[in-house]
Amino acid sequence: MSERVWIKDEGIERGAEALTPERIERTINAVLGNETGARLMAYVETCAHCGLCSEACHFYLSRDRDPSYSPVGKVKQTIWPMLKNKGKVSVEFMKQATQIAQTECNLCRRCVQYCPFGIDIAYMMTLVRRIVHKLELTPLYIQDTAHSHSATLNQMWVKDDEWIDALHWQEDELRDEFPTARIPLEKEGAEIMYSVIGPEPKFRTQLIYQAAAIMNVAGLDWTMPATPGWDNSDMAMFTGDSEIMARLKRAHFETAARLRVKKIVMGECGHAFRSVYDTGNRVLGWRMPPIPVIHALEFYWDLLNEGRIKVAKQIEEPVTFHDPCNVVRGRGLHEKAREVVRAFCKNLVEMHPNREHNLCCAAGGGVINCGPPFKNARVESNRAKAEQLKATGVKICIAPCHNCHGGLDDIIHKYELDMELKFLGEIIYECMEKPEAQ
Amino acid sequence: MAPKAQWDWSVGSKTVVDLATNNDEVAWREESHASPDGEQVAAVVRTTDETYTVQVNDTLWESQFDRVWYLRYSPDGRLTALVNDGDWKLCVDEEAWEEGYGFVWNTLFSEDGSVIACSVSDSMQYGMIKDGEIWPNLFANANNFVLSADGAHTAAAVQTEPLGQAEIFKFKQGVFSVAVDGEPWERNFVNVWTPVISPSGTHVAAQVRLNLFEYTIACNGATWNETFSQVWEPCFHPKTNAIAAPVRLGGKWGMAVDGQVVWKPQFFQVWHQRYTPRGDRLIALVCPQYGRWTVAVDGQAWRTTFGDMISDLTTSPDGRRIAAVGKENERWTIIADDKAWPEMYDMCWKPVFSPNGDHVAAKVERSKKYTIVVDGKPYSKEFSECWDPIFSDDGNLILIRGIINNTYIRIVERVSTICG
Amino acid sequence: MERIYVFVSGPLAWIAWTVFVVGSIYRIWHLLKLAKEKEQVLFSYISFKYAIRSIINWAIPWNTNNMRLHPIFVGVAFLFHIGFFLILAFLSAHVILLEEGFGLGWPALPDIVADMLAFAVLGACIFFAARRVVRPEVAFVTDWTDYALLGLVAAPFLTGILAYHQWGDPLVVTLLHILSAELLIASIPFTRLSHMLFAPFTRGYIGSEFGMVRHVKDW
Ligand code: HEM
Ligand code: SF4
Ligand code: SF4
Ligand code: SF4
User: Fold this and answer.
1) pLDDT of B78-100, one tens digit each?
2) Which among A165, B53, B366, C118 counts the fewest CB atoms within 10 Å?
């Protein structure tokens, strides 16, 4: 395993050029002084420097137990010196802190489960990202994504008409298979609003297709918005831009409220779920989401249990299941997901550890969104996951999260794993009864 | 459609159309839309020829299209739809606008319905069309489209310069502006959101982001001197052109008018502010306590709060009364003047005031059935579908439009009968 | 010397305990005040039920996933903490002091057990220190304060053992024992030993978030 390299990223480099020591000091003290309180104090003062969180982190495990990749090691290289020096840290230090917080932590919160005090390292990495944002050091690609969010309220610069067009097109496609199927747009008073992430209309329209097929087969009263607010994803959450995050989540929830739906069902995405269920609602003052958000995994489980979808055939080949942190450690959906997987697949081979103790894919937390400059380092930092996948010996891996797909895909290539990745919806679409299909 | 006073206001119920009658040409029917006067019910239909058209009462439009969607009645009773016959067009009462485009969407109406506008994109260029007339300039992108209440002006947030992939530094120099009737402001901003047109038609204000962290309000291209860590959409005073906007300072939300803080930043949230019609009070939806929501009048929060959310802030035409929709534990109700209706519903629609403000009514849902409720008292019949109620000009009668057993009916009822 | 002894075992002990009690109250009050002023939001995510669930599960040795990855460390750490409190409260010499001073009394540990416990606590401190040298992931986050804290904790036990076994000048050793114990007690609220005060809050908070909001175990 290679040593850590300090990677050159245009966003970080050019951002750093514009920095002065005064601005760094002022910004750090403003963020730590105005935006933190009891939590940070308790975390910093309570931490026993015991290193017990190390084994939680796939970066540490994959990097031959290099302590500088351990959770507390990352705090030591970021928050501690900032506090100790009262914000007087160098430009070089900030560049490194950026790489650590923004690309070497997936905010997967596994370490939280391993620290005897329950210290939330991910929270501290988020604080560093907030400082990085305010210093305009955010890596180029994820910053561009955050800009897309700000300008279009979606992740992929999808223009208002392109979104609608993608839905019309998928509806047409759908009719070839289900002649009376609809993707109802702007249907006020429907039971469900279905929301997706930016890349779906752009690159993964088949996922909209499959979701619509499931909705139609299940006979649900559903709708999709024809306005911005359709995208539930949120890279601003991961660049520490909580103001843009707030704007995105407001648009999302107010769109659902405008459509008078009872709940929002969302596709198979982990980070988007974190944003709508946990983080985004809070910055707006909503203790819990104002309109319930149902992640695809739970939704499938409901459909199966209500008998709205039925199993027509099962996947014979053995499969394994990757637990996305954000819906497992973030929402405890691991058992429901397994019940659905078992219904549609004959043989589920577990990877270890699994369920709420799963290892992250190393893509999450916006890391994959930092783009090509960091790709190698990211993939090297998840040998642990590769070994875990390999040990299952199976050829199909179900990963119900977009980012996980991206991350696992890279790992599968790099470590030559000969595995196929699937969304759960893909499997359900393939294997469910389709009475009206032609 | 005739003015409201000339509608049929005779008390009683009238079957307008039986929707169960089969029409051989119709493969299926989409959602119904009732006309404001209640005399029509329309829906997009899929024909057996695999085309689309519109059915109004029991009659189909003659023209058929590759696609028809976004069927909406304008406030003056004209039926509009977005149609595709190779090009996209806006169609008003079966008459498509002459010119077709790559795409049109987002139909907008002036308050009285006399002016209709929509968004347009053609050859990767974006803008608006008003009554068939397209903006003189189109842009690389546009969104946040608005039509003024009087229909005189249109505006949108527009991208005035090309932006390549991942050009984050150019982005920070600002490539967005506001275009009014297609003419962009002279100045660009990092971001521009929610342009709002003043009642006088002389001013347009919008939220702008000056760099990645400083937000303020710009009016006709000039920003407030003050900046904030966050702002929401501005609104105009009905008479003075003063601009009010929620602003965030020190982590809490308050309200600023023309840049000066007028509501102390003490809320966890403030948004959807508006002046009452005469401009004497400024009201908004607020979160006074984390996780509790209500209405604030001149910065003073109501006592009744809701845990899930609050929405649909409404005032009576004379500005005397205020109502909103509140939600608690997955159930909705109406709150008017700090008093919630006794019952909670599975859903409530935007409250509707009678012209003199004496009554407030709303469409509600209970166990998958719909009805209307006036001052907290439900109407005796339930519908499988129904629309927002409409009061007569004197406020004594109420028009109820609904579907029972596949029959669309139009009912005029005495308000006193419902309120008992 | 005697005068110093009288002072150290009398007024200074009072001072040390007062500093501990007042300091602890102050730290907790300050923590809550800070939370109220700046993170009021967090209070709405505290659930007593899930806080307790988390605290209990982390109070049982070898119960959590991570504890099972570190069986020896967990054994030593529990022995250390339990030993510390047992000796503090149940060492016969401490019980007699209390009885004499306040007329309060309770059964004491047999001396031989207490002696073994004291050695164990001391041994644990050495183990902790050794770990800080040997294990790279611990060494990486260790600085002099960690050794100083270990020294601070070990000192009363070391001197206690010396005193009990009558090794060295009894008066000097006892004096050092009392002094180091007072120093330890008084420093708890103001060093990272304050984890004793904050642990229930950090644990309870994250337990609530995991249990009530995220519907998942935090161990
Ligand atoms: C009831 C309150 C306390 C709780 C819940 C608690 C909990 C913990 C925990 C969870 C750790 C982390 C590592 C481990 O599992 O051992 C720890 C470490 C430690 N505790 Fe405590 N503790 C408490 C009281 C004390 C007191 C009173 C002292 C001092 C005399 C103390 C001294 C230490 C030391 C020195 C370490 C660091 C060990 C090392 O260097 O690795 N603790 N404590
Ligand atoms: S990647 Fe996960 S385990 Fe590692 S430090 Fe970040 S949150 Fe903790
Ligand atoms: S496990 Fe917790 S206390 Fe120990 S070093 Fe990690 S964060 Fe600090
Ligand atoms: S991408 Fe998937 S595994 Fe990775 S952090 Fe997100 S949810 Fe976790």
Assistant:
1) 999 999 999 999 999 999 999 99
2) B366
Cβ neighbours of residue A310 under 8 Å, at least 6 residues apart? A432, A433
| Same domain assignment for residues A83 and A110 | yes
- Structural domain boundaries enclosing A78: 10-138
The one-letter amino acid at B345: Y
Same domain, A342 and A370: yes
Q: Quick one: A197 and A223 in the same domain?
A: yes
Q: Cα separation of C92 and C110, whole Å?
A: 7
Q: Which atom of ligand 4 is nearest to the CA of A403?
A: 1
**Under DSSP, is residue A100 helix (H, G, I), strand (E, B) or coil?**
helix
In chain A, positions 29-48, which contact chain B (CB-CB < 8 Å)?
Answer: 34-35
User: Structurally, how many domains does chain A consist of?
Assistant: 3
Ligand 3 atom with the shortest distance to the CA of A52: 1
Q: Do C40 and B290 touch (CB under 8 A)?
A: yes
Position A373, amino acid: P
Instruction: Kindly state whether residues A241 and A156 are assigned to the same domain.
Output: yes
| Tens digits of residue pLDDT in A407-435 | 999 999 999 999 999 999 999 999 999 99
Which residues in chain B are contacts of C40 at CB distance < 8 A?
290
Asked whether B245 and B232 are in contact (CB, 8 A), the reply is yes
**Among A113, A138, A163, where does a domain finish?**
A138
Give the Å distances, CA to CA, from A239 to A119, A229, B203, B417.
Answer: 21, 20, 35, 58
Q: Which residues of A touch C130 (CB under 8 A)?
A: none
Percent of chain A with pLDDT over 90: 98
Residue that terminates a domain, selected from A138, A162, A190: A138
Ligand 4 centroid to A340 CA: how many Å? Answer: 20
Report yes or no on A437 lying in a domain: no
| A28 plus A57 within the same structural domain | yes
Claim to verify: residue A98 and residue A188 sit in the same structural domain: no
What is the complex's ipTM, to 2 decimals?
0.97
My answer on whether A110 and A233 are in the same domain is no
